[in-house]
Amino acid sequence: MYAAMTGLGGVGVVVGGLLTTYGAVGLAVIGSVAWTVVNRHVRDPLSQIAAGHNLAGHIAAGLGSPIYDHALPSGVTSARTMGAGATVLALIVAAIAIRVRRQDLPDSPLVM
Question: Distances in Å between the alpha carbon of 51 and those of 45, 54, 66, 75?
Fold first, then answer.
């Protein structure tokens, strides 16, 4: 992608920098969502156990316990769902923003 933008001069450098920046911000947001979901799924059952509630099968809170076995996949699922939603939103915005009208097209196709 960068090779295609080098012919644009300074604009290509700015666009490339923006793509990198927004990609990093998007990745950070999706990672934060995933970690928040995992943290919430682990913290809530552990606080109930500490309060004395009986959660059958969840007493062992170490790695490999049912709490973690549920928390990690749910965090990844939330992050992937958010990423898919962002992709669909970008597709809709692109479909609305990029319009080709009949008068914008050439009269005859190019023959190579």
Answer: 10, 9, 19, 25
Buried b (16+ CB within 10 A) or exposed e, 35-62: eebbeebbeebeeebeeeeeeeebeeee
Dist CA 74 CA 98 (whole Å): 36
Asked if residue 34 lies in contact with residue 75, where contact means CB atoms within 8 angstroms, the answer is yes
Task: Evaluate if pTM is beyond 0.90.
Answer: no
- Parse the chain into domains and list their residue ranges: 25-96
pLDDT tens track for 73-84:
888 898 899 989
Is residue 58 scored above 60 in pLDDT?
A: no
Identify the pLDDT of residue 38.
86
